[in-house]
Predict the 3D structure of the following.
Amino acid sequence: MDRLRTNFHTNTTIERCDTCTVRHRAVCGALSKEELGYLNRLARHKKVPAGQVIMSDEEPADFVGIINSGAIKLTKTLADGRQQIVGLQFASDFLGRAYNSRNAYFAEAATDVEICSFLREDFEALLKQFPDLENRLFQNTLNELDAAREWMLLLGRKTAQEKVASFLLMLAQKSSLLGCGHSETVKFATFTLPITRTDMADYLGLTIETVSRQITRLKSRKIISITGNREFLVPDMSALTEVAGQDQPLDD
């Protein structure tokens, strides 16, 4: 794993910030053009194939990064060796944790991923130098906390139908925000399911049979459509939003 961490940041090529497609949503979007130039000199661009471990929990945290494309699966290892998915990250999300010398979780590329990475010490120095960047990272952390609380509600109180619909809605919203630039209001969305249905069931606290049954029901109601194995279309985002928050489930 030491070799993986070392190679992750050194075997890279520089990616210019002014051509980045997610900068407007990432933490670096708070920087001026001149500040971005300084950031660019420290950044390294890395392509990670699906299935590769990017970070290992309880290992030294050597770097942090901003996800340019793809999806990353975050997991925690239990005392008996079992692993639990605790989060997913997508383009524009911040990977890793500043001011922490050890990783808090496993981070594995769920799909092919591209990351703009920084040595952790270098990035922490930037936070001190550029207050706007530090404020943006702080706001990002608060947003993640809010999302974690929403997910606690989903796991604890929502029905199986609402859980599956909420998960698909989250993916649709992520896809739409990136595809539409600054626009946050969209009527439809397309996305690729970044994890297997088994992982999806694990993440939602359901069985794979229940997940598949709920997806089939959403499809039969024309709330979603599926082309291929993992390609999803949401023709009406408001309809999926309604199902994700409804009080009464369909017959199970």
Q: What stands out?
A: The longest strand covers residues 63-69.
